[in-house]
Amino acid sequence: MFSEWFLLLSLGFGLGFMHALDADHVMAVSSLANQKPSMMRTLHFSLHWALGHGSILMICGILLLALGITIPSKLQHLAEISVGLLLIGLGVLCFWQFRREKITLTQHRHGNMTHIHWQTEHHTHNKKHDQNDPLFNKHQPVMVGMVHGLAGSAPVIALIPAVASGQILIGIFYLLFFSIGMMLSMLFFGVGFSWIQTYLQQHAQQVFMWNRYLIAGASVVVGSVWLWQTV
């Protein structure tokens, strides 16, 4: 009995760990963290995204196991469309943030040599201003995670009847370990992403600026492709 539980929960944990690294998930968290890069913000977004995603899966799973209620396919399709729109919106928000920071591509000429680099007009923000900033809203990554959870719930929920074999408790613990694996995976990603961003910011400022624009643009492209495939 113990070995059976161990295998099932390990399966849930492993699948959740891999599921978190889906392209749309990674792109969404990267875009959220790209607005104002820092280790704490990235971990905050990673954790709250995972909480939003996991909570929706738990709710869908409990509804199925306890009441036999499944999420309507039309609602899941609408959530999939929302994922594409969210990715596009997050990319646009990044570009808007760059404009607020007054990040511009500047050309300088020294004698016969001309070079181009990114230039930022630095200005200080007090804590109160940052807390009122909509980009600092702690509910934003939770809502993004919930949309992802609803959009991707079908394949996860489909495994529950086979895993649980009629036992509600096993199904709930399976989803719980799936969500824990997903959370740890996204936190690991957040640490790695933040470390790279911090390193570039300190040692290669121009590459860091280009990288921020690349992430914003990639979010718009991935969202557009996702939307095109979904619709």
Automatic annotation (TrEMBL):
It comes from the Bacteria. Keywords: Membrane, Transmembrane, Transmembrane helix. InterPro entries: Chloro_ReproSupport/MetalTrans, UreH-like_TM_dom. Residues 30-208 form the Urease accessory protein UreH-like transmembrane domain. It comes from Candidatus Endobugula sertula (Bugula neritina bacterial symbiont). This is Urease accessory protein. The keyword Transferase does not apply. The keyword Membrane applies. The chain crosses the membrane at residues 49-71, 78-98, 142-160, 172-196, 208-228.
